[in-house]
Amino acid sequence: xxxxxxxxxxxxxxxxxxxxxxxxxxxxxxxxxxxxxxxxxxxxxxxxxxxxxxxxxxxxxxxxxxxxxxxxxxxxxxxxxxxxxxxxxxxxxxxxxxxxxxx
Length: 103
What we know:
This protein has one domain: 3-Layer(aba) Sandwich (Rossmann fold), CATH 3.40.50.300. Helices cover 44% and strands 11% of the residues. It has a three-stranded parallel β-sheet with strand order 1-3-2.
């Protein structure tokens, strides 16, 4: 079984291709639109990894997004955000929920 059929089964129990393949599905929208909620559900349904960009940014910076804005400003945050999202897009498959705006 190859990576595109792994962990995905039809009703009859036969393996079926992962519809995402090795692509990253990116969810973009306004703050509070439900990107994280939908992303987690979609990733669970497809049995692929889910990543929240805001959580990754906070982990990389060692502080919350409002703290990044307060201590370093929006430009610094946006530069870090671009780097983190670029890194996440290089992964093989998954669902990525991007941030919804400001801090």
